[in-house]
Predict the 3D structure of the following.
Amino acid sequence: MASNITAGIRETTQVFEQDILRERIPRYIGRDGILTPYSQREALGQLWLKDMGGTHAEEVYVAHTMLTDEKMICILSYDHILLVEADDSKLERNIPLDSIESVEPSRSGVRLNYKKGSTEILPVKQETTSKWFSEIIERTMNQRIEENGKR
């Protein structure tokens, strides 16, 4: 009987020693830590943020969208808007949310109005995507204001 138990333990540990391949990208878990239904889109955005490495890899992912040329990804974290090359996850630009006064959708993309008076448009293909992404940025900025008490 003892040999049967020993054999069972040995066979069980051999199964766990094999390389295990992932079936899907790790689940996205938001700032609140609440588990939500699996979303491949959110999981992919979080993976891109983590793959960048450096200090941004530790930031909290919020949302992402492809820019018009489809060579750049615009990733919104809780602290920054990051423009990243799609093919190698190289950071091209880092826009702190604290530097933005307001956000609004436009026909050509997402308009960022900076506190210093300048504006910039993040070129987003579809108007509906531009509206959605603008709303997410605005919501994130408002959450930050509520938590930090300043604009």
Summary: The two ends are 71 Å apart (CA to CA).
